[in-house]
Amino acid sequence: MFDKLKDGISSAVEKITTKTLTDKNMDDVLWDLQIVLIQNDVAVEVAEAITKKVKEKLLGYKVGRFEKVAKIVRQALYESILEILTPEEPIDLLEIIKKNKANGKPTVILLVGINGTGKTTTLAKLAYKFKKEKYSVVIAAGDTFRAGSIEQLEKHAKKLGVKIIKHEYGSDSAAVAYDAINHANARHIDVVLIDSAGRMQVNKNLMDEMKKIVRVASPDIKIFVGDALAGNDALSQATEFNNAIGIDGTILTKVDADPNGGAALSITFVTKKPILYVGIGQEYKDLEKFDPKWFAERITGVS
User: Are residues 188 and 112 in the same domain?
Assistant: First the structure.
């Protein structure tokens, strides 16, 4: 996981051996570092911002007699990455659900993203997680466009033992969400998970559909589900959805198979919204809360 990025960073930082870090002698190593980041799916603007932060932390630093320069550079990089990944406003889904339940209302969560990212499976993983925490769940089959999407969700619902609200293919997704929320209110269900259609993000009809769901359902949380292996494509998708409906956070799938790790940095930097969970496998239990410190440690070698 992220081995390619970690190895590239190691190679770049080991090049600097000077005892005083100046503007001149840092330029080469920071340029190498920037290239490594870009080659590992970190967007150019993000790579530039990271190296700028590193330079600001290191400029004029006098290396102690027994200090290793590479270690100091790694630490500065670690801190810079952590600054980007640590949200100004953290989101704890379980706390939101707990608070809403105490106030007698369901928590409505909308999942958006394009086809093939694992959105429907991620929805099922969230349902599993919430049920483990003793919260009741209803699923809204809001993807009425893709053939087989409702049946796929029905299979998950049956395995998980949760209710699914569905309409016919081609029907109004917002109406499905509305009915699911009414069902939750009537039955005192804690969480409504809304699936949505996943055509390409540049599809205007899809974006209009997302906006309508948001108007009708007023979700507490809007989550973009992105494929870590998609790299900069995941960034462009997140940007489009964020511009259209204002996402609140991201779940990255297939992180366990990602050698690069750049998508996490890029999406967080550009959307200014936190990564909530990461998918690390196909089983329902394979959804972990994202830890910025773990990520920064993993790719920089700082512990």
Answer: yes
Q: In terms of pTM, does the model score above 0.85?
A: yes
Q: Is 38 helix (H, G, I), strand (E, B) or coil?
A: helix
Q: What's the total number of domains in the chain?
A: 2
Q: Which two tokens stand for residue 220?
A: 């507490």
Give the DSSP H/E element, type plus range, for residue 51. Answer: helix 44-58
**Nearest-angstrom CA–CA distance, 13 and 30:** 8
Do 76 and 100 belong together in one domain? Answer: no
- The CATH number for 20's domain is 1.20.120.140
Cα-flanking dihedrals φ and ψ of residue 254, to 5°? 60, 25
- For residue 258, the model assigns a pLDDT of 76
Cα torsion 212, 214, 218, 222 to 10°: value is 170
CA nearest to 284, candidates 163, 64, 128, 164: 128
10-residue block means of pLDDT along the chain (303 residues)?
A: 77 67 73 87 89 83 64 87 87 96 97 89 96 97 87 95 94 95 97 87 75 96 92 86 93 85 87 93 93 89 79
Determine contact, residues 247/210, Cβ cutoff 8 Å.
Answer: no
